[in-house]
Amino acid sequence: MITRSTLVALLLTFSSAPALAQHQHAPAASPYAGLEKRAVKALSDEHVADLKAGRGMGSALVAELNGYPGPSHVLELGEPLGLTDAQRNRMQALFEAMKAETILIGERLIAQEADLDRQFAGRSVTPASLTAATAAIGATQAGLRAAHLRYHLATVEVLTPEQVRHYEELRGYSQGE
């Protein structure tokens, strides 16, 4: 025979089961939660800072990993590479020109992303404005990458083949092969 306390326990268990089931199936927070508070939703604060500083953010990896160093890292490794004064001066000039060019392009990209963000936030985006905005953003991204890659091309012209090989060793890309 079921006692009164057992009956109460069973009723409590069964009556709370739907609430437990609901709690267990609650949707998980999106990995994007919190990103809606960014100034430019498509760009992290770090990405914006990198663009404003003219940093490459890996956009020239194809050059870097195929024996075309960039001016920034060559300057950092100037002593072990045995840069001459003329090479160091040329690297510094290339680095400063690269930064000046890429900062301007980065600022343009930030502005374009902010404009697209405003269009969506203001519910004014149309298929035509979306196409135009994304095409402009794509062209700016391509221009930014090309700019960084051009400076890698210019850098390798200043170095000797031995310095390029040594650079690769210093960066850990080859083992003296």
Give a summary of the structure in a few sentences.
With 177 residues, the protein is an all-alpha fold. It contains 8 helices and no strands.
How would you portray this structure in words?
With 177 residues, the protein is mostly helical. 69% of the residues lie in helices and 0% in strands. The chain has 8 helices and no strands. Helix 2 (45-53) crosses helix 6. The longest helix is centred in the middle third of the chain and has 37 residues, at 85-121. The chain is elongated, with a radius of gyration of 28 Å.
Average pLDDT over all residues: 89
Q: Quick one: biggest sheet?
A: none
- What gyration radius follows from the Cα positions, in whole Å? 28 Å
Give the strand content.
under 5%
Low-confidence stretches: 7-12
Helices and strands in order, then pairings?
Elements: H1 4-24, H2 45-53, H3 61-64, H4 71-76, H5 78-81, H6 85-121, H7 127-158, H8 161-170
